[in-house]
Structure prediction request, 272 residues.
Amino acid sequence: MSAQEIAFVILAGVGSLGALRLVTSQNVVHAALYLVVTLAMVGAVYLLVAAEFLAWVQVLIYVGAIVVLLLFSLMLTKAPIGRETLDNQQRALAAFAGIGVLVGLVFLIQDTFGGKPPIRLQPATTSQIGASLFRGFVLPFEVVSVLLLAALIGAVVIARKDEVE
Amino acid sequence: MIAAARIRLPFLLFFGAVLFSAGVYGVLARRNAVLVLMSIELMLNAVNVNLVAFGAYLRDVLLTGQIFALFVITVAAAEVGIGLAIVILIYRNRETINVDEVNLLKW
Prediction:
């Protein structure tokens, strides 16, 4: 195993552990903090495969914005605690489905990509990303900006308190 | 030197698979709507890991994998904003955000 692979196994181990604790935790605030761990580890994995811009976007948007948004909504909905209020009665069935998906994916990945040579990583600089984004993907970029604007306005309109008439 | 770094593709894909399965379990087993949204974020992250991994594997000069991951992150941000607005609205009307108790549209 190369140094990159050892580092990756450590990061992915911590990230997977955080993900498992996130879906089994009995305290919603702890679950949100485990989400931070998992997202940060995913960002570190991006750094490891030399996708530096994506790593910082991950930290900025996921760890910075989305987790704060989730914590705010936990606060506004008075975050209950306890297994019966957080989980439904189909835990066993859900675990079966999750493990089934995992086993199927692992089998497929090993079967398809098991013997392939390792990736030789090449760093993707921010300027390369920018050049590709604004040369090849201008229209999707504009569509996504309109989508974000619509989501922003929609969220404000939905969550606003109605005035008493 | 980063240029000589090597990593095997299945490692990255296994990580994505673990995150995705945890997300599937979370979406199916949780009652709290905010926790369901968190599990969806987990699944979207698994997809992003796979996109970046395949982008590196195929040595794409246009970096399509990473750019598509950027778009997924943007759409996920929009989704979480709208989703949480709806959750807060449901809480205001029903005093609960358990997804199995919100059955107004149930046939």
Q: What stands out?
A: DSSP finds seven helices and one strand in chain A. The two ends of chain A are 69 Å apart (CA to CA).
